[in-house]
Amino acid sequence: xxxxxDIIHSVPVDELTGSxxxxxxxxxxxxxxxxxxxxGYDYARSNNPTRKALEDIVAKLEGGxxxxxxxxxxxxxxxxxxxxxxxxxxxxxxxxxxxxYRLFTQIYEKFGIKVHYxxxxxxxxxxxxxxxxxxxxxxxxxxxxxxxxxDIQKIAEIAKPFGALVVVDNTFASPxxxxxxxxxxxxxxxxxxxxxxxxxxxxAGLVVxxxxxxSEKIKFIQNATGGILGPxxxxxxxxxxxxxxxxxxxxxxxxxxxxxxxxxxHEVDKxxxxxxxxxxxxxxxxxxxxxxxxxxxxFSLKNDTVEAANQLVTSTKxxxxxxxxxxxxxxxxxxxxxxxxxxxxxxxxxxxxxDSLIRISCGxxxxxxxxxDLEKALTIKENLVLKxx
Length: 389
Ligand SMILES: *Cc1c(COP(=O)(O)O)cnc(C)c1O
Known about the structure:
By secondary structure, the protein is of the alpha/beta class. It has two domains: 3-241, Type I PLP-dependent aspartate aminotransferase-like (Major domain) (Aspartate Aminotransferase, domain 2, 3-Layer(aba) Sandwich); 245-386, Aspartate Aminotransferase, domain 1, CATH 3.90.1150.10. Helix content is 34%, strand content 15%. The protein is built from 13 helices and twelve strands. It has helices at residues 3-9, 49-62, 73-81, 98-108, 152-159, 174-177, 212-225, 231-242, 244-263, 282-288, 306-313, 345-350, 367-378; strands at 66-70, 89-93, 114-118, 134-140, 165-169, 187-191, 205-209, 268-272, 296-301, 320-321, 331-333, 358-361. The strands form two sheets. Strands 1-7-6-5-4-2-3 form a seven-stranded mixed β-sheet, with helices on both faces. The chain binds pyridoxal-5'-phosphate. Pyridoxal-5'-phosphate binds at residues 72-74, 97, 99, 140, 144, 169, 171-172, 191, 193-194, 203, 205. Belongs to the trans-sulfuration enzymes family.
């Protein structure tokens, strides 16, 4: 049986009624026959059948032992960080998701957990920081917004002898394009707000664990700290997963065509997309990403100014100006003023976020319409984008 058939049919048919879609068990508690005698459910923070259906599908999707659904991607990241104690250390990719950076620096460092931010595009760079206090190695690949790629397998090989767990935030690739457990990861997390939900109508997070031992630990944290995903949102996430493969394939096909189009434009300076042969770590991306590179493309302008970027991001019709990514409708964003506005300009420039850097999330629209939309926005009258300085 192929993977896609397996995933679609792993959504269970409701035993009571035959309902082909998972019922939304909107309940807080479950009636017991006698104290402690129940049908496997007692209280909805601990477990809920709609959530269980989602968690089982996600475990299968990533090839893990178990999965756990949280209220947001950040709540999922927080649950994994709670595996640590004072004195432990984390090595994290240097352009980690901004919310994770804020969580580590402003919450966890207060509790005596040290985080080293390292450029992991060369895996060996972690050697300088890894020691027996290192408990987690936190990787995103591709990263946001410059789509840097890390060799996950190499990182796992270096981490193993130190007993450090490799955590991969697989949000940008999605399990369609990348399976981190096959590359040696121990924990996979997702902002299901993005590709897994896929319709820009949901905020959710997932933790997937490779071993039973880790599953028990995360299950305990999920119940003890309580940041679970509600049943209606679990239903939406399941419905998203049923079309995940179709969507990510289309988004990746659109993205490579758009990235290639952008490289031909004289208004455009750099184009960042792991599917391009010119990408620094294209060979690694090709090896670990099943030939799909996701729907996010970033690019900068020859006129490297905020004003030029502003003109472009407010001139598109189909690319809607908004944060987030992974939905069926295309989005456009200006990181320096939006997702990365809280990072000082100097630091932004260091990590390649130029003043004019623009990030697009390709949806599933017809790619010719999307290309025309960008073409028009690049060539409107009194073109700031074109002006070279
Ligand atoms: C959006 C995002 C998160 C945070 O997820 P939320 O659902 O917004 O809390 C974490 N990691 C990555 C890579 C993201 O893009």
